[in-house]
Amino acid sequence: MDVFPLINIHTHSPARPGEWVIQNIHKDFFDLPPAFFSAGLHPWYVSAATWQQQLNTLKEISANTRMMALGECGLDKVCTTRYELQIEVFTAHIKLANQVKKPLILHCVRAHEDVLHLLEKHHSTVPVIFHGFNKGGLLAQRIVDKGYFLSFGKDLQRPHMPEIFAGISMTHLFLETDDANTGIEGVYNTAAGIRNISLEELSLQLKQNLQKVFNISV
């Protein structure tokens, strides 16, 4: 079986040869990339003066068939954006995602309990992907048990991550490069090695996950 294209669920760069990507944008929402993309208000860059207008723009472009998801959006307790504002903006993303029926790609730093609470409180009905996951196994299992998805990248090489990655159902995983200046091949090789499976088997499962979440085949 041909393993290509390799699915990169979250990147800030255009696709490389052999990749299928969702390219993330967080500004200039009317200057859209020619390929599949996600768009959202990243908590680092949220402005009280402009976020509502930007959200209206996101609603407009959500009709674009190349827009695969809202995000990355979410909560970050380390950045300088006022946390109450982050909660307001993230809540608006959840409601918009339900309205336009687009999955959510989440940025979450030291705020997983709050994110999970808000998703439940506001009755999220769309697929949810926690991107760049690098936390512990108990949290990973809680997220998956709620039906959400985890996306892993370069942090798979951290000492505690192989055990966590190996313990999560393959039906709830994605792979990504995020802002790393590398292709997805290395992440695929690391992931297949951890799971002790072939690249073909890994590729087939991720293609099935893509179909399930985004209703698109590659």
SSE order and pairing:
Elements: E1 6-11, E2 19-25, E3 37-39, H1 51-61, E4 67-76, H2 83-100, E5 104-109, H3 112-121, E6 128-130, H4 137-145, E7 149-152, H5 161-166, E8 173-175, H6 185-195, H7 199-214
Parallel strand pairs: 1-2, 2-3, 3-4, 4-5, 5-6, 6-7, 7-8
Helix pairs in contact: 1-2, 6-7
Can you tell me the residue ranges where pLDDT is under 50 for at least 5 consecutive residues?
Answer: none
Order of helices and strands: EEEHEHEHEHEHEHH
CATH level 1 name:
Alpha Beta
Distance between the termini: 13 Å
For the record, the count of structural domains works out to 1
Radius of gyration: 16 Å
Which percent range describes the beta-strand content?
15-25%
CATH architecture: Alpha-Beta Barrel
Per CATH, the superfamily is Metal-dependent hydrolases
The biggest beta sheet is recorded as:
8 strands, parallel
| Tally of DSSP helical segments | 7
**Mean of all residue-level pLDDT scores:** 96
Write out the strand line-up for the largest beta sheet, numbering strands in chain order: 1-2-3-4-5-6-7-8
Quick tags:
218 residues, alpha/beta, TIM Barrel, 37% helix
Describe the structure.
With 218 residues, this protein is of the alpha/beta class. The protein has a single domain, classed as Metal-dependent hydrolases (TIM Barrel), CATH 3.20.20.140. It contains 7 helices and 8 strands. The chain has helices spanning 51-61, 83-100, 112-121, 137-145, 161-166, 185-195, 199-214, and strands at 6-11, 19-25, 37-39, 67-76, 104-109, 128-130, 149-152, 173-175. It has an 8-stranded parallel beta sheet with strand order 1-2-3-4-5-6-7-8, with helices on both faces. The chain is globular. The two termini are 13 Å apart. The mean pLDDT is 96.
